[in-house]
Amino acid sequence: MQEPEGQCNPNPCLNNGVCEEKGKRKFKCDCPKPFKGKKCQKGPSDCYVDNGESYRGNVSETDDGHECLYWNSHFILESGADPFNSFEDSDGLGPHNFCRNPDGDKMPWCFFRQGRRLSWDYCDVTKCLQPAAEVTPSAAAPLQQFTTCGQPQPKKNVARIFGGLKVPPGAAPWQVSLQVRPKSSNKPFSHTCGGTLIASCWVLTAGHCILHSAGTKDMQVVVGALSTNIEEATAQTIQVEEAIVHENYRETPAAVYNDIALVRLKGTGGVCANETQFVKTACLPDGQLPDGMECKISGWGATEDCKATYILSHNKNANVMLINQEKCSEPKIYGTVLDNSMLCAGHLLGGVDSCQGDSGGPLICDQNNAKVVYGVVSWGDQCGKKNKPGVYARVTRFLDWINIHITQTGIAI
């Protein structure tokens, strides 16, 4: 007599696992040692090396226990992602739901379905234990100078939707995390503001980020990072030599004026940050850009208005539009508080604005086939409010000031 079909027929459990039905559409696999996982698919040798780009194992669950979608899932394609057009055949993708790392992230990941939303997460797969390599003396590799500015890592990514667009590795390589700790303490540093790497030893940020901090001894910057709460192999942590706030910086209850600062980093021989595919500089702008142009903001969401609830563990980005200065000076928007040291960008209907980025972080626009830092996140009226777009320091207004201070040190851009 043929056994009726159910959750355990055919047996979904691998490696001789025993299937037990747990009601409609649910089952549990009792896995023989040393196998584990929802379907006993994870063996003792199922691990990844380095960042897992070469991983070809069978793990198909996320850290939180979500089952991965097949890479050719119609639901992924419907949501605007297309792994097969984004990645090469050598990246291990196929008509399966095994975890992979096709875009050079820190470890294997996968898509999963969360209600009607496409999400992603890192996978429940461990890093292989590797024997300690024998250390042999060798000459230190010279630090690399930055060859050009405004050129991100060539795109090799899927838009991973997770309450916003997660920045893939190398997409915003000039993004800086400005970190501080309590004055003269041994407490850990924490992310407080964003910034833009404009040269190996120079970061552009907001004046209020510096004035509201403890001092350069209790300040550091991290470049090449995607996360603020874990150590990453791509990240470089650099101490601060000097911070320079614009001499005409001024705060009022309504606005912040000339809200710009330079941070000079500590280095050797004029080299501080080392150029990699994850660390590059943004260009300074060459003249004005047209109103209505679409630009991009990125960061971890640390702004003066939103700091308590919007600091995110992973760097995100969003698109905003440059708004006409006269329009932004209308009484229902910002009125007479704006001056020519500022510009507005965002959406007048609300939604996305600088709370999606960081105070001090970059407003990046396209100019002359390069990415330029056109604005520095400064202030606004709450987050995503109608008729209250983000306000930015207008970088073109400060080009002479930037160049004077940089050339005085002899460490040029």
Automatic annotation (TrEMBL):
Pfam families (UniProt xref): EGF (PF00008), Kringle (PF00051), Trypsin (PF00089)
Keywords for the protein's UniProt record, in alphabetical order: Disulfide bond, EGF-like domain, Hydrolase, Kringle, Protease, Secreted, Serine protease, Signal
UniProt-listed InterPro entries: EGF, Kringle, Kringle-like, Kringle_CS, Kringle_sf, Peptidase_S1_PA, Peptidase_S1_PA_chymotrypsin, Peptidase_S1A
Molecular-function GO terms, alphabetical: serine-type endopeptidase activity
Domain EGF-like: 4-41
One BP annotation, GO: response to lipid
Catalytic activity annotation: Preferential cleavage: Arg-|-Xaa, Lys-|-Xaa
One term under GO cellular component: extracellular space
Top EC class of this enzyme: hydrolase
Keyword presence, Kinase: no
SS bonds (residue pairs): C31-C40
Domain (Kringle): residue spans on this chain: 46-128
Keyword DNA repair tagged: no
EC number: 3.4.21.4
PANTHER family named in the record: HYALURONAN-BINDING PROTEIN 2, TRYPSIN-RELATED
Protein's UniProt name: trypsin
Source taxonomy: Eukaryota, Metazoa, Chordata, Craniata, Vertebrata
